[in-house]
Write a structure and sequence with these properties.
Layout lengths: L11 H6 L12 E2 L5 E14 L3 E17 L7 E13 L1 H4 L1 H4 L14 H10 L27 E2 L18 E3 L13 E5 L19 H5 L10 E11 L6 E9 L29 H4 L3 E9 L8 E9 L20 H14 L1 E4 L7 E4 L5 E5 L7 E9 L2 E11 L4 E3 L3 E2 L10 E2 L5 E5 L2 E13 L4 E16 L7 E19 L3 E17 L4 E2 L22 E2 L5 E10 L7 E10 L4 E13 L2 E12 L8 E2 L24 H6 L14 E2 L4 H9 L6 E9 L1
Parallel strand pairs: 5-13, 14-20
Antiparallel strand pairs: 1-2, 2-3, 2-33, 3-4, 4-8, 6-7, 7-12, 8-9, 9-10, 10-11, 11-15, 12-13, 15-16, 16-21, 17-20, 18-19, 21-22, 22-23, 23-24, 24-27, 25-26, 27-28, 28-29, 29-30, 30-33, 31-32
């Protein structure tokens, strides 16, 4: 595929290697008789099988790339048109529909051994004398009464139940069940997992609302994603030298980054993580957009070996990352499950397990907690880059004014108090009720790459500083704060002979160290009204930690690739690994690729993860111990205390009349996902993967 400008960047091999199921780019090219038209493409079948699940991908894919040179005319010295078309069908939604299609999910029941005592407290003030014994294994959205199986309804639940024909106990899974078994007795939410045309609960309009055919035929959608790229190139000579002004206008990918796997500068195009989480090749998982891409190429000067300037302006409407929705086999961080569960809570009400503490299960009414809506921005995104070579060192200076491609959950929306029958529709501080927003960001950064003859190695460095990113912050009334973020990466590539493995060919060894720091990180040991964070209570499996930011202040990720070649480069074994130091989670992928002929490529790979003793599920402040719905007057019984935590009611009932922030009770759901990271949350997604490609 022809690019507007190709700048050599060491280490690109690692990006190729980290694609699980990736095969080499096509070598075959068809050229027209006059040499002005180039056509290449491939047909591919990829099959992924996950331990304890079964089939997770059965994708048939066809891609065609075209490039047409046009006759220069007028002021243009070069004119051309390029494009890439892609269509695919993923049979997993038909062949394994019990996990990912129309029959996915089922009924769920919650463990609630404390419900009889809780109901006794709410009804009479005495945990030992409930009017009747509630179920200790209530069903989702069950009907609560002396004779049925529902959870305890909060007073604001209309009619005492959230059960309705539109909110049945079917087609559900626990939102974090694919990550861990709730051994920390953290908050338990159920999420619908069927395609949105089969079950529209929790589907966020315009964001996470894919229908069955949009899952099967990924590129056939309202965004016309089957047109991967379609652009016009034009070049205008400037002055008498080699200076020229080059344009690319149309749908395209713009590659800024010089690193692999994790992005630092490569933020122009959003990513489709639902394709295969982190492990798809960036070339395949970037979401192309319509842009005006202009470069002023100066070439060599008295100071620089090469120099050019680039300006970008996005014409196409804003598009965020595709994180995968609830029920897809690849959904980074499990965020799709969480968002769909919360959206269903807002629309229909929901059953919440281990709330307000471990062992209890209650029903929340609609419009009390959850995700209300998605607010997508409609303003411009633009940026620029200076790129060149100075004394053999390639460099770039980058800047971009854009919107976050990751969503931010912003609290402070109007909600109803679930502890009162009235409908208030007013903001409640510290309530876990959100809109999804995409904040405006400004990023500046730069990169450098060079070769050391002495060390026989190529090195690369990349850094960025971004303002305005938003993070979960349990100390703030709206449950988020913004922070500037510093990111950097250092990498190397070295061909190294390993004689006992191959006497004739060197192995490529490539490594990277990524670093991230949240510049405005804050945590606290007391809550918003000065109550200290309580000590841990291991006897009741209850643990506490500081409130505030729940992501890591500092984090380091490491990657390593070792790749060899045999049989005149037709057999390529490799091992790739990545490790998240704070999450203490890693992934390793050994693979072997075989090219029996120029048109055929076979690849077999494993993708194996591991994590620390937490099993990838790192706890965080889950906001259970906040008081978003204060009592109207000083309560005399727990039933009058609203959302006030029982220990606060017992120690200082007057405090229950004001809203206050969390006391730091820990659980994985919902914010532990961001501590566990994309590797830790995928710890149970070990896979074997086979790819067959025919290139033409």
């Amino acid at each position: 595929m022809t690019r507007l400008r190709i700048q050599p960047a060491p280490g690109r091999v690692l990006g190729l290697a980290l694609c699980i199921g990736l095969v080499s780019p096509a070598h075959a090219v068809w050229n027209s008789a006059d040499g002005t038209l180039e056509v290449r493409g491939f047909l591919e079948n990829q099959t992924n099988y996950r331990d304890d699940v079964g089939l997770t991908k059965q994708r048939l894919q066809a891609q065609v790339e075209l490039f047409k040179h046009l006759q220069p005319r007028g002021i243009f010295s070069e004119l051309s048109v390029g494009g890439t078309l892609r269509l695919s069908y993923d049979g997993v939604y038909d062949l394994n529909d019990k996990d990912y299609g129309r029959n996915a999910g089922g009924p769920v029941n919650f463990s609630a051994p404390g419900n009889p005592a809780l109901f006794g407290i709410l009804a009479t003030g005495d945990p030992n004398t409930p009017p009747f014994p509630p179920s200790t294994t209530p069903s989702y959205a069950g009907v609560f009464s002396p004779f049925t199986d529902g959870a305890i309804p909060l007073p604001g639940v209309p009619g005492g139940t959230i059960n309705s024909p539109g909110n049945p106990n079917d087609g559900l899974r626990f939102a974090a069940a694919d990550i861990y078994s709730y051994q920390d007795q953290g908050v338990t939410l159920a999420t619908p997992v069927r395609p949105c045309d089969k079950d529209n609960r929790g589907c966020l309009s315009g964001y996470m609302d894919k229908r069955s055919d949009e899952l099967r035929f990924k590129e056939i959608n309202d965004d016309l994603d089957f047109i991967r790229e379609l652009y016009v190139n034009a070049t205008i000579p400037v002055g008498e030298g080699d200076n020229e002004l080059a344009f690319r206008i149309g749908r395209q990918q713009v590659v800024w980054g010089r690193t692999d796997l994790f992005r630092v500068l490569d933020i122009v195009n959003p990513m489709d993580f639902s394709r295969e989480n982190l492990y798809a090749e960036f070339e395949d998982s970037r979401i192309p957009q319509v842009m005006v891409n202009m470069e002023y190429r100066i070439g060599a000067t008295k100071v620089f070996d090469d120099l050019n300037y680039q300006l970008l302006y996005k014409v196409e409407n804003f598009r965020p990352h595709d994180l995968g929705q609830g029920g897809e086999p690849y959904a980074i961080l499990g965020a799709g499950n969480l968002f769909r569960a919360l959206a269903n809570c807002w629309d229909n009400g929901c059953t919440v397990g281990n709330f307000p503490a471990a062992g209890f299960t209650v029903d929340f009414p609609a419009n009390a907690i959850g995700i209300r809506q998605v607010n997508e921005p409609d303003h411009s995104e633009f940026g620029g880059r200076i790129e060149g070579v100075f004394r053999g060192v390639g460099f770039s200076l980058n800047a971009m004014y854009f919107y976050s491609q990751f969503p931010s959950l912003r609290g402070g929306i109007p909600t109803d108090d679930p502890f009162t029958p009235a409908i208030e529709s007013v903001p409640h501080d510290y309530d876990i009720a959100f809109d999804v927003d995409f904040p405006r960001l400004f990023m500046v950064g730069g990169s450098a790459d060079w070769y050391s003859e002495k060390l026989k190695s190529s090195f690369r460095f990349e850094t960025s500083y971004t303002t305005g990113e938003e993070f979960a912050d349990t100390s703030k009334p709206r449950l988020f704060s913004d922070s500037d973020v510093f990111r950097a990466v250092v990498g190397f590539d070295r061909p190294t002979f390993i004689p006992f493995l191959n006497k004739n060919r060197a192995f490529l060894i490539s490594g990277q160290v990524f670093y991230q720091r949240l510049m405005d990180y804050e945590t606290y040991s007391v809550n918003s009204i000065g109550i200290p964070i309580p000590p841990d209570d291991p006897a009741n499996n209850t643990y506490f930690d500081k409130i505030g930011f729940q992501d890591w202040e500092d984090n380091i990720l490491l990657t390593l690739l070792i790749q060899g070649n045999y049989l005149n480069d037709r057999l390529t074994p490799q091992i790739i690994t990545a490790y998240d130091t704070e999450a203490e989670a890693g992934v390793i992928s050994p693979s072997i690729e075989f090219k029996p002929a120029n048109n055929w490529v076979f690849k077999l790979a494993l993708n194996l993860k591991w994590a620390n003793d937490s099993g990838g599920a790192i706890p965080a402040d889950d906001n259970r111990s906040a008081n978003p719905f204060p009592a109207a007057a000083v309560p005399t019984t727990p039933g009058e205390a609203g959302s006030c935590p029982l220990p606060v009611f017992q120690a200082a009932p007057g405090a229950c009349t004001v809203a206050f922030s969390s006391l730091g009770m820990q659980g994985f759901e919902p914010l532990g996902r961001f501590r566990s990271g994309p590797i830790g949350t995928a710890v149970n997604e070990d896979e074997i993967q086979f790819t067959l490609r025919y290139q033409f």
